[in-house]
UniProtKB/TrEMBL annotation:
GO terms for cellular component: plasma membrane. It comes from the Bacteria. Binds 1 pyruvoyl group covalently per subunit. This is Phosphatidylserine decarboxylase proenzyme. Heterodimer of a large membrane-associated beta subunit and a small pyruvoyl-containing alpha subunit. The record marks 251-252 as: Cleavage (non-hydrolytic). The active site is at 92 (charge relay system), 149 (charge relay system), 252 (charge relay system), 252 (schiff-base intermediate with substrate). Keywords: Cell membrane, Decarboxylase, Lipid biosynthesis, Lipid metabolism, Lyase, Membrane, Phospholipid biosynthesis, Phospholipid metabolism, Pyruvate, Zymogen. It comes from Sulfurivirga caldicuralii. It is a peripheral membrane protein. GO terms for molecular function: phosphatidylserine decarboxylase activity. The keyword Secreted does not apply.
Length: 296
């Protein structure tokens, strides 16, 4: 047992996670000029943020801290290294895990695993399609770009909000809290692609004051007590690879799932490894210099 991690993580069990996250959401969206400028200045002092790639490079021009935190980038800052069919990273961050799913079990960390069914909010029939499939976890630190984009061309089938805890998702907490990704609040986004189903899961965390999507707007807060499901099959919500689909406030995690035999390169990525949105997520013969570099 890593006692240092336990000392770091232990207090999170006692904190009023949702209350603190709601408070952070209100603070992050405050438009009082001196306060939001102070928050942004403090953040820039703590983290190495490259504002040269931001669409708005003047930190004082943002309406609120959250407006700054979820800032848009210049189109040329994130070229899309894909042809629409292969997978590219949906977000900036660290690939913390890349694995072949063992039957219905995913490994979170040493001595910790969790099931597909628990990760997918108890949807047993949907989980069946990902048995022995592929999974990758991308951790977004506070300094990262926090918009989430389509990893490939696809059509939105449905979205499920799963209520849960709001533990941090940093490496120390992932190594310490059993079943973390299956117990934290999350959004399950189901897509159908030319190759088959792709699942993208946005995992909430403490101080992630808001999760939102481009089709439904802000999902949290408020924090709902029960599972909620939205069916979009009749709406033909189709997205191209690289299109924005959602965003986080503060750091969090994105998990990608694909079935066995579909995008198997997803389970063979080096970890931990830094990645930018739009960079290839599959190590195979398709990821070479001939790949189409599209800009969005």
């Amino acid at each position: 047992m890593n006692w240092l991690n336990l000392l770091k993580v232990g207090p999170q069990y006692l904190l009023p996670q949702h209350l603190l996250s709601s408070g952070m959401h209100r603070l992050a969206n405050c438009e009082i000029q001196w306060l939001k400028n102070l928050l942004i200045k403090g953040f820039l002092a703590l983290y190495d943020v490259n504002l040269d790639e931001a669409l708005e490079s003047d930190p004082k021009a943002y309406r609120s801290f959250n407006d700054f935190f979820t800032r848009a980038l210049k189109p040329e800052a994130r070229p899309i290294h894909g042809d629409g069919h292969d997978l590219v990273s949906p977000a900036d961050g660290i690939i913390s895990q890349s694995q072949k799913i063992q039957d219905n079990t995913l490994i979170q960390a040493k001595c910790h695993d969790y099931t597909l069914e628990s990760l997918l909010g108890g949807d047993i029939s949907y989980a069946e399609g990902f048995r022995n499939g592929n999974a990758a976890v991308i951790y977004l630190s506070p300094r990262d770009y926090h918009r989430v984009h389509m990893p490939c061309d696809g059509t939105l089938v449905s979205m499920t909000y799963v209520p849960g805890d709001l533990f941090a998702v940093n490496p120390a907490t992932v190594e310490t809290v059993p079943g973390l990704f299956a117990r934290n609040e999350r959004l399950i986004l189901r897509f159908e692609t030319a190759e088959g189903p792709v699942c993208l899961i946005m995992v909430g965390a403490i101080f992630v004051g808001s999760m939102q999507t481009v089709w439904a707007g802000k999902i949290t807060p408020p924090y709902r007590p029960t599972l909620q499901h939205w069916d979009y099959r009749a709406e033909n919500l189709t997205f191209r690879q690289g299109d924005e689909i959602g965003r986080f406030n503060m750091g969090s995690t994105v998990i990608l799932l694909t079935p066995d035999g579909q995008h198997d390169g997803l389970s063979a990525l080096p970890t931990p490894a830094s990645i930018k949105m739009g960079e290839p997520l599959e190590l195979n013969e398709e990821c070479n210099d001939e790949t189409d570099h599209r800009h969005h």
